[in-house]
Design goal:
A hairpin with a 5-residue loop joins strand 2 and strand 3. The two termini are 33 Å apart. With 261 residues, the protein is of the alpha+beta class. It has six helices and ten strands. It has a single domain, classed as 4-Layer Sandwich (Phosphatase 2c, domain 1), CATH 3.60.40. The longest helix is centred in the first third of the chain and has 17 residues.
């Protein structure tokens, strides 16, 4: 069995791309780290802050550090936080970034997140789990003061109470799962999930021909819907392929590389 990946990113309607994403792998193993980071819009050096998350992961990923995946992911978040703070800035305009990290090792998956970039875990075509945003809007949903369907586009969604960078040390949230055949993880920035529901994402992937790139197709849909005012869009798809299915490309097979400008 093995993992397949598909990644895509688009600047959307913004003047600058402040998202950054990548997939890192350990040589000779089925061990990978997928990263999506979204620089804080409107903050100085947001694009550089997102890039620092990926660069920190590139420097830190090694077989020696992965005996405790949760500890590794936590340290990666905290080291990224420190690296962003070293970029400078004052409390009001300091750089910042969200992050969602997925570490997969054979049939095991571990993840950590800070902010409102999301991870969705699908099993048998159904949503199995997802991360919860560190935003004021999400708090209101949990309190019953806002409907989940009204989060996208709500100005309170942009008010994060946890991020990488700034004077408040983040407390990443973690998840883990043993993997079943054809499990799919979808990591994305808010510029993606604001326009495409998880149910629509799965439905679209099922309908695509084998030769078409799933992430690229979904990002194109989000780009069209966001139009001239849409946010940066980033998406990484990760799928566990059973042995009997290997050899075919499938909709998740194309790895599109390191996305940030």
């Amino acid at each position: 069995m093995s993992w397949q990946f598909s990644m895509a990113s688009d600047i959307g309607g913004r003047k600058e791309q402040q998202d950054c994403l990548d997939k890192l792998s350990l040589n000779g193993s089925d061990t990978h780290l997928v990263i999506v980071a979204d620089g804080m819009g409107g903050h100085r050096d947001g694009a550089l802050a997102a890039r620092m998350v990926v660069e920190t992961a590139r420097q830190r990923l090694s077989a020696d550090q992965l005996s405790d995946p949760r500890a590794f992911l936590k340290s990666l978040c905290l080291e990224s936080h420190q690296a962003i703070n070293e970029l400078g800035g004052n409390d009001e305009r300091s750089p910042g970034s969200t992050c969602i990290l997925l570490y997969v090792n054979g049939p095991e998956a571990y993840w950590a997140h800070v902010g409102d970039s999301r991870l969705y875990h699908f099993r048998n075509g159904e949503l199995h789990n997802r991360t919860q945003d560190h935003s004021v809007a999400q708090l209101m949903v949990e309190q019953g003061r806002l409907q989940e369907g009204d989060v996208a586009g709500n100005p309170l969604q942009n008010q994060l109470y946890m991020r990488l960078g700034g004077d408040k040390t983040p407390q990443p949230e973690f998840g883990a799962s043993e993997i079943e055949d054809d499990d799919i993880f979808m990591l994305c920035s808010d510029g993606f999930w604001a326009y495409i529901t998880p149910e629509e994402a799965v439905s679209t992937l099922k309908q695509l021909p084998p030769e078409e790139d799933g992430a690229a197709r979904l990002v194109a849909i989000a780009r069209e819907r966001g139009g001239s005012t849409g946010d940066n869009i980033s998406l990484a798809l990760t799928r566990w392929i059973p042995e009997k299915s290997r050899g075919g490309k499938g909709v998740l097979s194309k790895l599109r590389g390191y996305f940030c400008l």
